[in-house]
Amino acid sequence: MKSLFIAEKPSVASEFAKALKVSGKKYDGYIEDEDHVITWCVGHLVTMSYPEAYDAALKKWSMSSIPFIPENFKYQIIPQVKKQFETVKGLLTRHDVEKIYVCTDSGREGEYIYRLVDMMAKVGDKPKYRVWIDSQTEEEINRGIREARPLSDYDNLSASAFLRAKEDYLMGINFSRVLSLKYGPVVAGALKKDFAVISAGRVMTCVLGMVVRREREIRDFVKTTFFKVSAELEREKEEGVFDAEWKVSEESRYFASSKLYKDVGFNKREDAEALIKELSENSNGTATVKNVSSKKETKNPPLLYNLAELQNDCSRLFKINPDETLKIAQELYEKKLTTYPRTDARVLSSAVAKEITKNISGLTKFGTVSSFADEILKNKMYNGIEKTKYVNDKQITDHYAIIPTGQGAGAASGLKPLSLKVYELICRRFLSVFYPAAQYKRLTVTADIAGETFSAGIKTLEKEGYLKVTGLDKKEDLKSENALSSIKKGESLRIKGFEIKEGETSPPKRYTSGSMILAMENAGKLIEDEELREQIKGSGIGTSATRAEILKKLFNIKYLRLNEKTQVIYPTMFGEMVNDVVAASIRSLLNPELTASWEKGLSYVAEGSISSDEYMQKLSDFVKGKTYAVKSIHNEYQMRQYLGRIKEYYSGAGKGSDNSRKEE
């Protein structure tokens, strides 16, 4: 009797064959020896059937046929991969196959890929085991096989996967059809086209709304000009010149004045000029140091990479989109260089932490970071890592963070330049967590000039710590550092002159492909603070495995466009029109928090907190309610007015050129 191993793709099956020392005959679609049969899917082999599979009449879109919510869902073999499905089906049901090991990707989507095949092949009650691995090294593959658990242990994960697919299917079909039938002619008229299909979905519509909302915030932004006053001060006894900026204090004659811009400047230039005149007349050309404070600051190494953080950094540093980053991360995983990429975790498990020297040791042969790996091992800097914030079993669901495996360092030499950069980025982030925090000194000096307060400060790097691994980020003003280094309270300073610095408020920043991935991970909030991001984690839009694909789809259907050089995202005219159609009909689809709550609900199903039936009932009620609501409203006339204004804006009437209006 034999054991059958089914992987998600041929390359992974090949790695399992190596790990199991299977050198048997290779057939069309599988490998076999005396004890093992190894086969593979090619991604999805099975998909959900279109409505016309239930009833031929449903192929034609009509208001009378929606909402469409079947009691029992139908599935079909994808025609392009039917041959491989038949091969896999034959192997799964073969009489001499005693055990089945499911080796598809260790996550919700991988689970779904196999369960669909199992269902369509009618495999039955053969013993089935789930292999769950974090990398494709032989050691990890053998561990996964050795520790394989009954497939039934993953039934809740499977249930959440089926529900996610049903959710996307039902929302996509019903909302796209009802919106297209109701508003398609209106949109087509605005675009001067014969027809317009409006695509809507649980996640993609929400992301579209985020981009349009940000674009309109920028469009409606009115800049404010303000004027700050600075003084150039010189030490009398020692050489040294530095700039200090005026800031209102409670003792200031301008305290709580309506002339102020916040507490650092004025709304009008003449008021800044009046302050300078007063100070020049009353200061006698000198300033007195009121206070000198020195404060130590530390900056800890950032948490390890999950896919979203890696995609954001690659967008920022290398100007590549999230889909390209994911492809590279997958390539590194398949070459055994890094661990599983589709992860939301940014920490290690305690089990991995115990054997972390294996991962570090492998990097002693990777030239650009070898010296750091050597230093960590020599000084045993890995000791105690399990007690730090970088190791936390509670923050891991399916997989731990993306880290180098420490194996296959030789394979890195064969990487393309961009893939090599991404690999090095992952290696440096990993090694940095074994180094101490960077230490800074922040020196702040306040001076009194005729009763008004001026302050100057400098932040200097004293100990680089982990920054020597990731790269220094210090920006130091050496002139000011030298001038302030030995200054004392009560010291008299010469005023060399005053200056008015004009500033402007800035509009919000447009999303980049990377920052959008982070915003999706954080339920629509673009949060730059790392610790705060971790606190709200788990309430994201989409998953690490799907976010890049969602963005890619929005670009493909021309709702959004991407500047390839800068990775900045803009809405298109069509995209803005679709946004307004949704806002006037199914507004909740644009709500990031609501969209995230659906994803959270799927997590509850995977955890066993709620049942599939409960979730399905909620989903059915939502789809029915929103579909009936759209069918009953009559606001097409108002929509024509809204869409006309959008078209007028994009025509550029009365405006200069604006990059956001350029259509590709």
Terminal CA distance: 60 Å
CATH topology of the largest domain: Topoisomerase I, domain 2
The level of helicity is: 40-55%
- C-alpha Rg (nearest Å): 31 Å
Largest sheet: 7 strands, mixed
Describe the protein's architecture and organization:
This protein is an alpha+beta fold and 664 residues long. It folds into four domains: 2-147, Rossmann fold (3-Layer(aba) Sandwich), CATH 3.40.50; 162-220 and 509-661, Topoisomerase I, domain 2 (Orthogonal Bundle), CATH 1.10.460; 225-300 and 438-504, Topoisomerase I, domain 3, CATH 2.70.20; 316-432, Topoisomerase I, domain 4, CATH 1.10.290.10. The chain contains 23 helices and 19 strands. A seven-stranded mixed sheet has the order 2-3-4-1-7-8-9. α2 packs across α3 and α5 packs antiparallel against α21 (592-607). The radius of gyration is 31 Å and the shape is flat.
Which secondary structure elements does this structure contain, and how are they paired or packed?
Layout: E1 2-7, H1 10-19, E2 25-27, E3 30-32, E4 36-40, E5 46-48, E6 75-77, H2 82-92, E7 97-103, H3 108-121, E8 128-130, H4 138-146, E9 149-150, H5 155-191, H6 204-220, E10 225-235, E11 241-246, E12 260-261, E13 265-266, H7 269-282, E14 286-299, H8 307-318, H9 322-334, H10 350-354, H11 356-362, H12 370-378, H13 409-412, H14 417-432, E15 438-449, E16 452-463, H15 467-470, H16 478-484, E17 492-504, H17 513-521, H18 530-535, H19 547-556, E18 560-562, E19 569-571, H20 573-583, H21 592-607, H22 612-632, H23 636-651
Parallel strand pairs: 1-4, 1-7, 7-8
Antiparallel strand pairs: 2-3, 3-4, 5-6, 8-9, 10-11, 10-17, 11-16, 12-13, 14-15, 14-17, 15-16, 18-19
Helix pairs in contact: 1-4, 2-3, 3-5, 5-20, 5-21, 5-22, 5-23, 6-20, 8-9, 8-17, 9-14, 11-12, 20-23
